[in-house]
Specification:
Structural class: mainly alpha
Order of helices and strands: HHHH
Low-confidence stretches: none
Shape: elongated
Radius of gyration: 17 Å
Number of helices: 4
Number of domains: 1
Distance between the termini: 37 Å
Largest sheet: none
Oligomer: single chain
Length: about 90
């Protein structure tokens, strides 16, 4: 049980790190666009990393694991529906 808990915590930490990195790259894209660096090599590189990485797939896997481990799956299902509507 402890081994599974550690793996779950590690996955959660990795997902949080990826989310932070994703958010920072999104901020960089916004800054580049705002400061008229839209047509630059660095903008293209950041965009490639931001939009063509495995971030969304990893995030979905983590959310699926959270869902499976949830004690109240009905509540979690309703929260996801609300997120999709927003």
């Amino acid at each position: 049980m402890t081994n599974k808990t550690n793996k779950g915590e590690e996955m959660s930490k990795a997902t949080k790190l990826l989310q932070t990195q994703h958010d920072v790259l999104a901020d960089v894209i916004n800054w580049l666009d705002t400061n008229k660096f839209s047509n630059t090599k660095i903008r293209e590189s950041v965009d490639l990393v931001l939009n063509h990485s495995d971030f969304y797939e990893i995030k979905q896997i983590q959310e699926d694991k959270d869902f499976l481990n949830s004690e109240n799956k009905k509540e979690l299902r309703e929260l996801r529906r609300e997120e999709k509507r927003a």
